[in-house]
Specification:
This is Porin. The chain is mainly beta. About 5% of the residues lie in helices and about 50% in strands. The strands form three sheets. It has a 16-stranded antiparallel beta barrel with strand order 2-4-5-6-7-8-9-12-13-14-15-18-19-20-21-22. A two-stranded antiparallel ribbon has the order 10-11.
Length: about 400
Amino acid sequence: MSVLRLSALHGAIVPLLMLGAGPALAQTTPSGPALLPPDAAPAHKAPPHRSMTVGKTTVAIKGYIKLDAMMTDYEARPAASLEPLGRDYYAGPRSVPLDDGSGGLTLYDMHAKQSRLVVGTSTPLDNGQTIKTHLEVDFQNSDAGNETISNSYQPRLRQAFFTYGNWLFGQAWSTFQNVGALPETLDFIGPTESTVFIRQPMIRYTKGRFQIALENPESRIAAGDTTTDDNSVPDLSLRWQAGPLVVAGLLRSIESQDPGGVDDSVIGGGISVSGKFAVGRDDIKFMATTGSGLGRYLGVLANFDAQVDAQGDLEAIDSSAAFVAYRHFWTPKTRSSFVFGAFDGDGDVESASSIHVNLLHSVTSSLTTGVELMHAEREMASGAEGAMDRLQFSAKYAF
């Protein structure tokens, strides 16, 4: 691995760090009772939501503008199919280029695609119930823009759901995922290879600490890197929370109904345990997940859902992953997160891991700046390996 060539960027970043910071990661979850749910890893009191009343409906707006600047040292050039995804953020093991002997290179990227807008409404009904809506968009993962002139990118749908009583209808974070366990990183996700991370349409029922949901199915088969929409039943996810601890389960049917190829199905599923524990002013977050046929649910497609065996039948792929994150407050306004995650699977990606270390400083609840170092690597079942190092600066203003 070549020496990380980041001294120039480091010199520019350190003075900017002194501007101040707030929460670096702002994934949101619909589990809270508030009109707009809180950020996943708030460091202190969040800025108030802007709201207004139209008739009986209260409308609240929040969001943020975020700039990310990254210098990344690769062992090989990233695959064209992974650009700009893998260069915008750590998009899991498959975004780490495999060493092909051609020599490493350093690439610099800057974008504001993570900037986000969230609109929520709350309307009392004649029957005494209240219906709430949540609409959330950003510009991440857009391939419709260009860096030549305008750097313009299309908005994408993140979440769009409404709640009525104990029911949720629409697109939201999977019930199998605990968004609140995500660590505070400048990277868009953080320990991508080792976390459950997925949003999709669903029908969810919540009763106290228990949730059950039917969620949109999709199967990804190793043969030819095929994604099928042949599923005949929805995925079933369950979740139970006891204080800071969350236990979630998943049961799904992985299917391929191709008369000219694979025409088979196999059952997949798994369990995930996660949580957050306070250690004085500091905190520890963790997640451990294991199962067979987890595929697209774990590590942002770190492995396929299933592969085809010698008899031409589908075989669910086993995989396990875990991360732990320790956040330390040096002062009430200055903090660091130390994050380690690892993935192990029986598919073409045999193992992967990442380390994140950052430094953030907060002046207000709205302004965020910080620096982060990240190292990630993966090893294939074939023996091929790859690694990358990244230095990232981010500035975010939340409203």
